[in-house]
Specification:
Blueprint: E1 4-9, H1 14-22, H2 28-39, E2 43-48, E3 68-71, H3 83-98, E4 101-105, H4 107-115, E5 119-122, E6 128-129, E7 132-137, H5 139-142, E8 153-156, E9 159-160, E10 162-166, E11 172-176, E12 184-189, E13 192-197, H6 205-214, H7 216-221, H8 229-245, H9 248-251, H10 253-263
Parallel strand pairs: 1-2, 1-3, 3-4, 4-13
Antiparallel strand pairs: 5-10, 6-9, 7-8, 7-11, 11-12, 12-13
């Protein structure tokens, strides 16, 4: 692999990342860097958080230097009207003008879809709490380089309450499961070719368990995903069983395939 210049965009608010740090939880950007390093260390990586910037003047003139961008997860909901979300959508639109290849993961896909004219709403079929089961690659996905060597049906780390309901114009739908019809897509906007994933190949199941424990009270009382702590612990046991059979390289294969896509240019 050649030396690649990558931009990682942090989707969480700084307050959330501070909470992560205090509890010893890696930020989503740190998880991304660690997972990418499993495949190659020939990377020059910059991390940028649009929520922490009052303007983008420092980074906008330099966007063309990046071979690709990965936009990761967040605890935000795209339909909430706040300045931080508006800033992220605005920055994504700027990236569409200058970065040719974008991997948009979970929140990142929701921001990209919204910036490109699609729509995201709260999922009507429930949420993924730490794991997405039985994601199935469709005929389009089986032909797509995103899924080279991937099993047609698989499980993956995931944590989301929302889903893409309207695709951007010209988008190609690649995979689904019972919770989210849109688990992955490809589309173009501006100069960018975007591969979008609703799940998290870059985050370990162990981190997902940590996040469930971190958010346990909200998952029970606010999100109403569980009725009590016993249900939460039963769900965690399900994820622990998945850890026993999960193969690291297979779980993260989408990252490898995207890196190969960058190197082929």
């Amino acid at each position: 692999m050649k030396k690649l210049n990558l931009l990682i965009v942090e989707g969480n608010l700084q307050a959330e990342n501070n909470d992560f740090k205090n509890l010893g939880i890696p930020t989503h950007s740190e998880s991304l860097k660690e997972s990418l390093a499993y495949f190659t260390r020939d990377l020059n990586i910059d991390v940028f958080n649009p929520c922490s910037e009052k303007n983008f003047d420092k980074i906008l003139p330099n966007l063309e230097k990046y071979d690709g961008m990965i936009w990761g997860g967040s605890s935000l909901n795209i339909y909430n009207d706040c300045i931080e979300i508006k800033q992220q959508i605005s920055f994504m639109k700027e990236c569409f003008k200058k970065i040719n290849k974008i991997l948009a993961i979970c929140w990142g896909m929701q921001v990209a879809v919204t910036a490109a004219g699609g729509e995201v709403k709260k999922s009507i079929n429930g949420a993924h709490i730490g794991i997405a089961s039985n994601i199935e690659i469709n005929d389009n996905g089986l032909k797509h380089p995103l899924y080279k060597s991937k099993n047609q049906k698989f499980n993956s780390p995931a944590f989301n309450f929302d889903e893409v309901v309207t695709l951007p114009q010209g988008a190609i739908h690649l995979a689904s499961n019972k919770i989210n019809k849109v688990q992955s897509i490809e589309f173009n906007s501006g100069v960018s070719n975007i591969w979008g994933l609703q799940y998290h190949p870059e985050i370990t199941y162990n981190k997902m368990i940590t996040l469930i424990n971190f958010r346990k009270e909200k998952l029970i009382n606010n999100r109403k995903c569980f009725t009590n702590e016993t249900e939460v612990n039963k769900h965690i046991e399900l994820i622990k069983n998945e850890i026993k059979i999960s193969v690291k390289e297979s779980r993260m294969l989408e990252l490898k395939n995207w890196l190969d896509y960058l190197n082929a240019a």
